Amino acid sequence: MFFAILVACLVPSMALSQQNGAAFPPTPQGQPDILLAGSDNRSFNLAFRDRLSAAFSRSIRIGPYTPDASRRLPDTLVVALGSAAVNEVMQQEPRPPLLALMVSNHQVEQYAGLGGAPFSALFHNPPLKRQALLGQQVLPHAATVSVLARPGEEHSYHELADELDAYGLELRVFTVKSSANLVATLNRALSFGDFLLGTPDPEIYNRQTIKHILLTTYRHNRILIGPERAFVQAGALASTFTPTEIIIENAASIIEQYLKQGDLPQTGYPEQFSVAFNQQVARSLNIPLPDRDVIVENLRALDAQKTGVGND
């Protein structure tokens, strides 16, 4: 039964080690073209660096980030993996040019409108509009969508609600006032929505809460879309996601552009994506899943119909 799916390893730690530079071997001779601020996972850092190097169209030297190394090379782009690495680089004075990877839009929204050196980010979490439209693809007759939000965060979904209205979806936000209030609020939300739209809010969706959210959702014969692919492994029905190789290819292109022109694009989501399903959950709830490739094609066509209203 999908009720027994383990949730302990939903989101891998991206905490930055105290000795960031020690996570990489020495840079080949010559001044590095970019600096890489890694996570505390040495194996991941090395694999990412090697795959990034292979994605470049020309030879680009990657050096390990340390505050001292960055101060000696103030115009050198720093590529940071994860929110902890981003936060450390952001604390550096003066701040270097920065490309943030493996982060969500919520994790970097505090840096919106930041002045100074160029800053950009590729978000790894799926855009909520696309996730809601995925739910509509899975449940073609769906007309209502529920979202859980913390107090004070309700306004951040107003523009998304306006945008989804153009697709025949009514979105309603339900406020989770405290952790003790989660299940009661979720019961109200599921009584309204044809499905629950997961959001990248770690206060609501985390290792401690996800089992309660999933069990309550199943009891209402409803589904959870998202918040991201890791939750599909735990029991959410579906999520869109961007494969790591696409993120690396996008990052390589952005880095080459910076080295050539000295600027970075606006923060945003990679355009290419795929869809992950939990087949066991679909069978248990008697939900026939559409063809994956057809869904991706449909979502791309819908995404092309941008309304210009926020939270894309």
Automatic annotation (TrEMBL):
Transmembrane segments: none annotated. The keyword Signal applies. Coiled coil: none annotated. Residues 1-22 form the signal peptide. InterPro entries: ABC_transpt-TYRBP-like. Keywords: Signal. The keyword Cell membrane does not apply. Gene3D superfamilies: 3.40.50.2300. This is ABC transporter substrate-binding protein.
